[in-house]
Amino acid sequence: MPIVKSKFKAPFRFRSGFIATVYSGLIRRLKINQFRERIILRDDDFIDLDWSYSSAPSKSLIILFHGLEGHGQRPYITGAALHFNEHNIDAICVNFRCCSGELNKYYPTYHSGKTDDVEDIIKHVISLEKYDSIFLKGISLGGSILLKYLGDGTVVPPQVKAAMAVSVPCDLSGSAKALHTLKNLPYHINFKRGLVNRLKLKQKKFPEAISKARIKTIKTLNDFDEVYTSRAHGFKNAQDYYDKCSSLQFLNAINTPVLILNALNDSFLSEACYPYNEAKINPNVFLETPNHGGHVGFISRNGYYYNETRALDFFLECK
Protein backbone atom coordinates (compact mmCIF):
# COMPACT_ATOMS: atom_id res chain seq x y z
CA MET A 1 0.00 0.00 0.00
CA PRO A 2 2.65 2.57 -1.13
CA ILE A 3 0.92 5.86 -0.30
CA VAL A 4 3.81 7.89 1.04
CA LYS A 5 3.50 10.38 3.87
CA SER A 6 5.26 13.46 2.57
CA LYS A 7 8.04 15.17 4.51
CA PHE A 8 7.90 18.28 2.34
CA LYS A 9 7.38 21.51 4.25
CA ALA A 10 7.19 24.57 2.02
CA PRO A 11 8.72 27.82 3.28
CA PHE A 12 5.91 30.03 4.58
CA ARG A 13 5.94 32.52 1.69
CA PHE A 14 5.73 29.69 -0.85
CA ARG A 15 2.74 27.88 0.63
CA SER A 16 0.54 29.58 -1.93
CA GLY A 17 0.31 27.32 -4.96
CA PHE A 18 0.19 30.35 -7.26
CA ILE A 19 3.31 31.96 -5.82
CA ALA A 20 5.26 28.69 -5.81
CA THR A 21 4.28 27.95 -9.41
CA VAL A 22 5.08 31.43 -10.73
CA TYR A 23 8.37 31.73 -8.84
CA SER A 24 9.57 28.34 -10.06
CA GLY A 25 8.57 29.05 -13.64
CA LEU A 26 9.69 32.65 -14.02
CA ILE A 27 12.21 33.57 -11.31
CA ARG A 28 14.46 30.57 -10.67
CA ARG A 29 17.76 30.61 -12.58
CA LEU A 30 20.46 27.92 -12.87
CA LYS A 31 23.69 27.51 -14.82
CA ILE A 32 24.61 24.18 -16.37
CA ASN A 33 27.09 22.99 -18.97
CA GLN A 34 25.26 20.86 -21.52
CA PHE A 35 26.35 19.10 -24.67
CA ARG A 36 23.76 18.54 -27.39
CA GLU A 37 23.32 15.32 -29.27
CA ARG A 38 20.82 14.86 -32.10
CA ILE A 39 19.42 11.39 -32.63
CA ILE A 40 17.27 10.10 -35.48
CA LEU A 41 13.96 8.52 -34.52
CA ARG A 42 12.20 5.53 -36.06
CA ASP A 43 10.23 7.73 -38.48
CA ASP A 44 13.39 9.59 -39.62
CA ASP A 45 12.52 12.69 -37.59
CA PHE A 46 15.00 13.96 -35.00
CA ILE A 47 15.09 14.79 -31.32
CA ASP A 48 17.75 16.72 -29.42
CA LEU A 49 19.26 15.51 -26.15
CA ASP A 50 21.17 17.84 -23.82
CA TRP A 51 23.78 15.89 -21.84
CA SER A 52 25.50 16.91 -18.61
CA TYR A 53 28.01 14.78 -16.73
CA SER A 54 29.27 14.02 -13.27
CA SER A 55 32.87 14.93 -12.49
CA ALA A 56 33.87 11.25 -12.43
CA PRO A 57 32.93 8.44 -14.84
CA SER A 58 29.46 7.14 -14.05
CA LYS A 59 27.54 3.95 -14.75
CA SER A 60 24.21 5.61 -13.92
CA LEU A 61 22.07 8.04 -15.90
CA ILE A 62 18.90 10.03 -15.37
CA ILE A 63 16.73 10.98 -18.36
CA LEU A 64 14.52 14.03 -17.80
CA PHE A 65 11.34 14.85 -19.73
CA HIS A 66 9.94 18.39 -19.68
CA GLY A 67 6.37 19.66 -19.63
CA LEU A 68 4.13 21.45 -22.10
CA GLU A 69 5.99 24.19 -23.98
CA GLY A 70 9.18 23.33 -22.10
CA HIS A 71 12.68 22.37 -23.19
CA GLY A 72 15.93 20.98 -21.86
CA GLN A 73 17.12 24.23 -20.29
CA ARG A 74 14.13 24.90 -18.06
CA PRO A 75 15.24 25.16 -14.40
CA TYR A 76 12.75 22.47 -13.32
CA ILE A 77 14.71 20.13 -15.61
CA THR A 78 18.28 21.39 -15.16
CA GLY A 79 17.90 21.53 -11.37
CA ALA A 80 17.51 17.77 -11.27
CA ALA A 81 20.35 17.31 -13.78
CA LEU A 82 22.72 19.37 -11.63
CA HIS A 83 21.73 17.57 -8.43
CA PHE A 84 22.28 14.16 -9.98
CA ASN A 85 25.57 15.25 -11.61
CA GLU A 86 26.80 16.24 -8.14
CA HIS A 87 26.01 12.71 -6.98
CA ASN A 88 27.95 10.93 -9.72
CA ILE A 89 25.04 10.38 -12.10
CA ASP A 90 25.05 11.64 -15.70
CA ALA A 91 21.93 13.36 -17.07
CA ILE A 92 20.04 13.83 -20.31
CA CYS A 93 17.59 16.72 -20.56
CA VAL A 94 15.30 15.74 -23.42
CA ASN A 95 13.87 18.30 -25.84
CA PHE A 96 10.67 16.90 -27.31
CA ARG A 97 10.12 17.34 -31.04
CA CYS A 98 9.97 21.02 -31.97
CA CYS A 99 11.15 22.13 -28.50
CA SER A 100 14.89 22.54 -29.07
CA GLY A 101 14.67 25.80 -31.03
CA GLU A 102 14.16 24.18 -34.43
CA LEU A 103 11.03 22.87 -36.11
CA ASN A 104 11.01 19.11 -36.49
CA LYS A 105 10.77 17.56 -39.96
CA TYR A 106 7.12 16.52 -39.96
CA TYR A 107 3.72 17.99 -39.13
CA PRO A 108 3.17 15.94 -35.90
CA THR A 109 5.25 16.88 -32.88
CA TYR A 110 4.68 15.56 -29.34
CA HIS A 111 1.74 15.02 -27.01
CA SER A 112 0.90 13.59 -23.59
CA GLY A 113 0.78 10.00 -24.81
CA LYS A 114 3.60 9.86 -27.34
CA THR A 115 5.72 7.09 -25.88
CA ASP A 116 7.53 5.85 -28.97
CA ASP A 117 10.05 8.70 -28.74
CA VAL A 118 10.77 7.75 -25.13
CA GLU A 119 11.37 4.19 -26.24
CA ASP A 120 13.74 5.33 -29.01
CA ILE A 121 15.72 7.52 -26.61
CA ILE A 122 16.17 4.69 -24.11
CA LYS A 123 17.20 2.26 -26.86
CA HIS A 124 19.79 4.79 -28.02
CA VAL A 125 21.20 5.17 -24.52
CA ILE A 126 21.41 1.40 -24.05
CA SER A 127 23.22 1.06 -27.38
CA LEU A 128 26.03 3.21 -25.98
CA GLU A 129 26.80 0.39 -23.51
CA LYS A 130 27.84 2.87 -20.82
CA TYR A 131 25.13 2.64 -18.19
CA ASP A 132 24.02 -0.16 -15.87
CA SER A 133 21.28 1.90 -14.24
CA ILE A 134 18.87 4.28 -15.97
CA PHE A 135 16.40 6.46 -14.07
CA LEU A 136 13.51 8.35 -15.63
CA LYS A 137 11.88 11.55 -14.42
CA GLY A 138 9.02 13.39 -16.11
CA ILE A 139 7.53 16.76 -15.23
CA SER A 140 3.84 17.50 -15.89
CA LEU A 141 3.21 16.46 -19.53
CA GLY A 142 6.57 14.65 -19.45
CA GLY A 143 5.35 12.73 -16.43
CA SER A 144 2.17 11.77 -18.27
CA ILE A 145 4.19 10.37 -21.17
CA LEU A 146 6.49 8.55 -18.77
CA LEU A 147 3.69 6.85 -16.83
CA LYS A 148 2.02 5.72 -20.03
CA TYR A 149 5.34 4.36 -21.31
CA LEU A 150 5.78 2.31 -18.15
CA GLY A 151 2.28 0.82 -18.26
CA ASP A 152 1.06 0.64 -21.86
CA GLY A 153 2.65 -2.70 -22.69
CA THR A 154 5.96 -1.38 -24.00
CA VAL A 155 8.83 -3.64 -22.94
CA VAL A 156 10.79 -1.64 -20.36
CA PRO A 157 14.49 -2.65 -20.45
CA PRO A 158 15.99 -4.06 -17.24
CA GLN A 159 18.46 -1.17 -17.14
CA VAL A 160 15.55 1.12 -16.21
CA LYS A 161 15.53 0.80 -12.43
CA ALA A 162 12.98 3.41 -11.31
CA ALA A 163 11.03 6.48 -12.36
CA MET A 164 9.37 9.58 -10.98
CA ALA A 165 6.50 11.71 -12.28
CA VAL A 166 6.04 15.20 -10.84
CA SER A 167 2.93 17.41 -11.01
CA VAL A 168 1.48 14.96 -13.50
CA PRO A 169 -2.02 15.27 -15.02
CA CYS A 170 -2.92 11.59 -14.77
CA ASP A 171 -6.41 12.40 -16.06
CA LEU A 172 -6.01 14.60 -19.14
CA SER A 173 -9.68 15.49 -19.46
CA GLY A 174 -9.94 16.62 -15.86
CA SER A 175 -6.71 18.58 -16.05
CA ALA A 176 -7.85 20.23 -19.30
CA LYS A 177 -11.02 21.39 -17.54
CA ALA A 178 -8.95 22.71 -14.63
CA LEU A 179 -6.76 24.72 -16.99
CA HIS A 180 -9.87 26.36 -18.42
CA THR A 181 -11.01 27.75 -15.06
CA LEU A 182 -10.67 31.43 -14.22
CA LYS A 183 -7.95 30.89 -11.60
CA ASN A 184 -5.69 29.38 -14.27
CA LEU A 185 -6.36 32.03 -16.91
CA PRO A 186 -2.78 33.50 -16.87
CA TYR A 187 -1.27 30.04 -17.44
CA HIS A 188 -3.90 29.23 -20.06
CA ILE A 189 -3.13 32.37 -22.06
CA ASN A 190 0.62 31.77 -21.88
CA PHE A 191 0.42 28.14 -22.97
CA LYS A 192 -2.01 28.88 -25.79
CA ARG A 193 0.06 31.77 -27.12
CA GLY A 194 3.20 29.65 -27.36
CA LEU A 195 1.43 26.70 -28.94
CA VAL A 196 -0.40 28.80 -31.51
CA ASN A 197 2.73 30.75 -32.45
CA ARG A 198 4.55 27.52 -33.17
CA LEU A 199 1.59 26.16 -35.09
CA LYS A 200 1.75 29.25 -37.30
CA LEU A 201 5.34 28.31 -38.17
CA LYS A 202 4.15 24.78 -38.89
CA GLN A 203 1.46 26.15 -41.18
CA LYS A 204 4.06 27.90 -43.32
CA LYS A 205 5.94 24.63 -43.68
CA PHE A 206 2.83 22.45 -44.14
CA PRO A 207 0.15 24.69 -45.71
CA GLU A 208 -1.70 21.64 -47.01
CA ALA A 209 -2.13 20.29 -43.47
CA ILE A 210 -3.80 23.31 -41.88
CA SER A 211 -4.99 26.72 -43.03
CA LYS A 212 -4.44 30.14 -41.49
CA ALA A 213 -8.21 30.45 -41.14
CA ARG A 214 -8.35 27.21 -39.14
CA ILE A 215 -5.67 28.45 -36.77
CA LYS A 216 -7.67 31.63 -36.15
CA THR A 217 -10.49 29.51 -34.71
CA ILE A 218 -8.25 28.47 -31.78
CA LYS A 219 -9.39 30.45 -28.74
CA THR A 220 -8.60 27.96 -25.94
CA LEU A 221 -6.24 25.08 -25.16
CA ASN A 222 -9.10 22.68 -25.82
CA ASP A 223 -9.49 24.27 -29.25
CA PHE A 224 -5.79 23.68 -29.87
CA ASP A 225 -6.14 20.00 -28.98
CA GLU A 226 -9.25 19.81 -31.17
CA VAL A 227 -7.70 21.53 -34.18
CA TYR A 228 -4.09 20.34 -34.00
CA THR A 229 -3.04 17.83 -31.32
CA SER A 230 -5.76 15.28 -31.96
CA ARG A 231 -5.90 15.54 -35.75
CA ALA A 232 -2.13 15.65 -36.28
CA HIS A 233 -1.59 12.52 -34.20
CA GLY A 234 -4.38 10.25 -35.38
CA PHE A 235 -7.14 10.86 -32.83
CA LYS A 236 -10.77 11.62 -33.67
CA ASN A 237 -10.94 14.76 -31.58
CA ALA A 238 -9.66 16.28 -28.35
CA GLN A 239 -11.76 14.06 -26.10
CA ASP A 240 -10.60 10.93 -27.93
CA TYR A 241 -7.01 12.08 -27.37
CA TYR A 242 -7.65 12.67 -23.67
CA ASP A 243 -9.39 9.31 -23.25
CA LYS A 244 -6.72 7.25 -25.00
CA CYS A 245 -3.64 8.97 -23.61
CA SER A 246 -4.51 9.60 -19.95
CA SER A 247 -1.91 7.74 -17.91
CA LEU A 248 -4.38 6.90 -15.13
CA GLN A 249 -5.65 3.84 -17.00
CA PHE A 250 -2.12 2.42 -17.33
CA LEU A 251 -0.98 2.66 -13.71
CA ASN A 252 -2.19 -0.79 -12.66
CA ALA A 253 0.06 -2.42 -15.29
CA ILE A 254 3.29 -0.69 -14.23
CA ASN A 255 6.04 -3.10 -13.14
CA THR A 256 8.81 -0.53 -12.61
CA PRO A 257 8.96 1.32 -9.28
CA VAL A 258 7.62 4.83 -9.84
CA LEU A 259 6.96 7.71 -7.48
CA ILE A 260 4.18 10.17 -8.33
CA LEU A 261 4.58 13.52 -6.55
CA ASN A 262 1.45 15.71 -6.90
CA ALA A 263 0.83 18.65 -4.59
CA LEU A 264 -2.69 19.01 -3.22
CA ASN A 265 -2.66 22.74 -4.06
CA ASP A 266 -1.71 22.21 -7.72
CA SER A 267 -4.38 24.16 -9.59
CA PHE A 268 -3.62 22.32 -12.85
CA LEU A 269 -4.83 18.99 -11.48
CA SER A 270 -8.32 17.56 -11.01
CA GLU A 271 -9.39 15.11 -8.32
CA ALA A 272 -8.72 12.13 -10.60
CA CYS A 273 -5.07 13.21 -10.92
CA TYR A 274 -4.44 11.85 -7.41
CA PRO A 275 -4.49 8.06 -7.99
CA TYR A 276 -4.86 6.82 -4.42
CA ASN A 277 -6.71 3.65 -5.38
CA GLU A 278 -4.12 2.69 -7.97
CA ALA A 279 -1.30 3.22 -5.48
CA LYS A 280 -3.07 1.00 -2.96
CA ILE A 281 -3.44 -1.78 -5.55
CA ASN A 282 -0.08 -1.69 -7.37
CA PRO A 283 3.01 -2.12 -5.13
CA ASN A 284 5.16 -0.46 -7.81
CA VAL A 285 3.21 2.82 -7.82
CA PHE A 286 4.14 5.14 -4.95
CA LEU A 287 2.00 8.24 -4.44
CA GLU A 288 3.08 11.27 -2.42
CA THR A 289 0.69 14.21 -2.07
CA PRO A 290 2.12 17.05 0.02
CA ASN A 291 -0.16 19.93 0.95
CA HIS A 292 2.00 22.49 -0.83
CA GLY A 293 4.13 22.72 -3.95
CA GLY A 294 1.78 24.12 -6.56
CA HIS A 295 2.65 23.02 -10.08
CA VAL A 296 6.35 22.04 -10.05
CA GLY A 297 6.97 24.49 -7.21
CA PHE A 298 8.46 22.30 -4.47
CA ILE A 299 10.76 25.04 -3.21
CA SER A 300 13.19 24.12 -0.43
CA ARG A 301 15.62 26.12 1.66
CA ASN A 302 18.72 24.16 0.66
CA GLY A 303 19.00 25.36 -2.95
CA TYR A 304 17.65 22.30 -4.72
CA TYR A 305 13.92 21.67 -4.84
CA TYR A 306 12.30 18.90 -2.84
CA ASN A 307 11.26 16.99 -5.97
CA GLU A 308 14.91 16.94 -7.08
CA THR A 309 16.36 15.63 -3.80
CA ARG A 310 13.39 13.29 -3.37
CA ALA A 311 14.02 11.78 -6.80
CA LEU A 312 17.61 10.91 -5.93
CA ASP A 313 16.62 9.35 -2.61
CA PHE A 314 13.85 7.30 -4.22
CA PHE A 315 16.03 6.09 -7.07
CA LEU A 316 18.85 5.01 -4.76
CA GLU A 317 16.36 3.08 -2.66
CA CYS A 318 15.14 1.23 -5.77
CA LYS A 319 18.53 0.63 -7.37
Strand coverage percent: 15-25%
Stretches where pLDDT falls below 50 for ≥5 residues? none
Give the biggest beta sheet.
9 strands, mixed
Tally of helical segments: 11
Strand order of the largest sheet: 1-9-8-7-6-4-5-3-2
Straight-line distance between termini: 20 Å
Q: Quote the average pLDDT.
A: 96
Would you list the SSEs in sequence order as H and E?
EHEEEHEHEHEHHHHHEHEH
Structural class: alpha/beta
Oligomeric state of this protein: single chain
- What is the total tally of β strands? 9
Q: What best-fitting shape do the alpha-carbon axes yield?
A: globular
Report the C-alpha radius of gyration, rounded: 18 Å
Helix content: 25-40%
Structural description of this entry:
This protein has helices at residues 17-27, 75-85, 116-127, 141-151, 172-179, 185-205, 212-216, 221-232, 238-245, 276-281, 306-318; strands at residues 3-4, 35-40, 46-52, 60-65, 90-95, 133-139, 160-166, 258-261, 285-288. It is α/β, with parallel strands linked by helices and 319 residues long. It is globular.
